[in-house]
Design brief:
Blueprint: H1 2-17, H2 32-48, H3 53-72, H4 76-95, H5 100-126, H6 134-161, H7 168-186
């Protein structure tokens, strides 16, 4: 008798205390906030390269690759190739006479787009897209912007003080090299 009471008591207690548990499907899709930030950063780079129609067209083609890689194909490789093409467009805009501030902005935005895209896939591969990751993604984005601004300041300081007669395209490569160095150290 005691065992039937225990079973009944156990069942009664579990019926009262149970909450509906919903199953979560783990999709490993890229994180939404970082994906949107990657697209916005690539768009900024496209606008910064608008001094030349050819450079803007190349950058816009890269932007399509970034968007498709994040939202259509969910391909990390497509995002990397897309941001590379955006960077080629930014460098082309420097060759065709883009101003230094726009060239630096475009270079920084391209690297941020790459970083945000990689972060979207990293967060997405570790967590479900139903997990609240907004805070972590925003902190990562803000830290990337701060590091990027510091690197831009150092690259511009080297350009202004040590190297006279350096072209804007060379400055873009110097900036990109510094950003790759920091990214490599971080990895």
């Amino acid at each position: 008798m005691m065992s039937s009471e225990r079973v009944n008591g156990s069942m009664a207690g579990s019926e009262q205390g149970d909450e509906t548990v919903r199953a979560v499907e783990v999709t490993h899709s890229p994180a939404t906030v970082s994906s949107v930030l990657a697209v916005v950063a690539a768009l900024v780079a496209v606008v910064a390269s608008a001094t030349s129609l050819l450079a803007m067209a190349v950058s816009a083609f890269g932007l399509v690759g970034v968007v498709a890689g994040l939202f259509a194909f969910e391909s990390e490789r497509a995002v990397a190739i897309g941001t590379g093409i955006v960077f080629v467009g930014v460098v082309l805009s420097g060759v065709f006479g883009n101003s230094l501030p726009l060239l630096v902005l475009g270079s920084l935005a391209t690297v941020l787009s790459f970083d945000y895209g990689q972060n979207a896939f990293s967060v997405g591969s570790q967590l479900s897209d139903q997990t609240d990751t907004i805070r972590g993604e925003v902190v990562h984005a803000a830290a990337s912007v701060v590091v990027g601004i510091l690197i831009v300041g150092v690259a511009y300081g080297v350009y202004a003080v040590a190297v006279e007669g350096l072209s804007y395209g060379a400055l873009a490569f110097l900036l990109f090299g510094g950003l790759l160095l920091v990214w490599g150290i971080r990895s």
